Amino acid sequence: MDLRQIEHALVVAEERSFTRAAERLAISQPGLSASIRALERDLGAALFERTTRQVLVTPAGAALAESARRILGEVSDARRRVADVVGLAAGTLAVGVVQTFTAADVPAVLARLHRRYPEVSVTVVEAPTADLLGAVQQGDLDVAFVALDASPLPGTLTAVRTYLESLTVIAPPDHRLARQATVRLRALAGETFVDFQAGQGLQTVVTAVCRDAGLERHIGFRVSQMDQVLSLVGHGLGVAIVPTPIAGASGLARLAIAPRAPTRHLALVSRASGPRNPAARALIALLDADEPAYPGATAENV
Predict the structure, then answer these.
(1) pLDDT tens-place string over residues 199-211
(2) Helix intervals (H) in 139-270
(3) 288 vs 25: CA distance, rounded Å
(4) What does each C-alpha distance from 183 to 14, 204, 239, 255 come to in angstroms?
(5) Computed over its alpha carbons, how large is the radius of gyration of the chain?
């Protein structure tokens, strides 16, 4: 009995048809039949009852199929473990990132990863936090850089790096408050706001910060791209609350929020068991958790 015969028996049991099983396995039907007969001789039991209309699984065949799933799963896991030991001579990495993530210089980290492991193919997906968390849960992404709100992470996910980032008010250079260094949020009552709306994270944090400060905003513009926020503010159409690193690079008037700058939480998340992909583990190892990439953010290992 070998792995090839075990796989053949499992597929026949699942398909209940030698014809469909042969097509699925990409082998000839006579070859499949011969493999099953050899296995039955080896085991001393009939695994299938062949009729003119269908293939029935015998009790012995059902018992083998149950063990076959476990055996083949363990073999696949063993192969993955061996590949991990061999190293990163090849492989893929799927990384998610929210549009406004600035606590780590993701492109710079990916560049370092590429220089060290040039044969690893990297896919970067930009999407809202909720979509990225779902993709990590489903295994479509290995890790994702996300912006969190007050909601806890699902139990199937864990934060392998966390970051705390301050928020700042930006205004047009000729705005009445442009010469001020700080501003209280309630002083912005009556101002038109440009609001970044791209799912949980920044949007929900800004909403909560304004609510807690007693500021009822007049939102004149709702956009889903941060560069649109900066452009609209730059054209004098309103003010906005954005991450401090983005404010610092915007060229717009920046006003620190008094008496204490509000913050948002960012994280690098993976599945709760930790990333199994060695390329993802290599990426995490390259992150400098002690020195944030931009002013206005702090980081720590989890």
Answers:
(1) 667 888 999 999 9
(2) 202-212, 226-234, 244-248
(3) 47
(4) 67, 21, 12, 6
(5) 28
pLDDT in tens, 45-65: 999 998 877 899 999 999 999
Place of tokens 């696949």: 76
Q: Residue 255 pairs with which residues in a beta bridge?
A: 169
Distance between CA 60 and CA 46 in Å, rounded?
7
Contact assessment for residue 122 and residue 110, using Cβ atoms and an 8 Å cutoff: yes
What is the spatial distance between Cα 9 and Cα 265, in angstroms, rounded to a whole number?
51
- The count of other CB atoms within 10 Å of the CB of residue 175 is 19
Count of other CB atoms within 10 angstroms of residue 72: 14
Q: Decide: 257 and 182 in contact? Cβ < 8 Å.
A: yes
What is the residue-wise DSSP string for 233-282?
Answer: HHTTS-BEEEEHHHHHTT-SEEEEEESS--EEEEEEEEETT----HHHHH
- In degrees and rounded to multiples of 5, residue 140 shows phi and psi of -75, -25
For residue 246, CA distances in Å to 13, 57, 231, 250 come to 58, 63, 13, 6
Q: Which residues contact 174 (CB under 8 A, 6 or more apart)?
A: 236
Determine the pLDDT at residue 288.
Answer: 62
The answer to whether residues 128 and 201 touch, using CB atoms and an 8 Å cutoff, is: yes
Quote the tokens at residue 154. Answer: 């699902």
Q: State how far the Cα of 11 lies from the Cα of 21, in Å rounded to an integer.
A: 6
pTM of the model: 0.66
Gap between the Cα atoms of 173 and 97, Å rounded: 31
CA–CA dist 202, 101 (Å, integer): 10
Three-state DSSP state, 56: strand
Q: What is the Cα–Cα distance from 260 to 184, expressed in whole angstroms?
A: 9
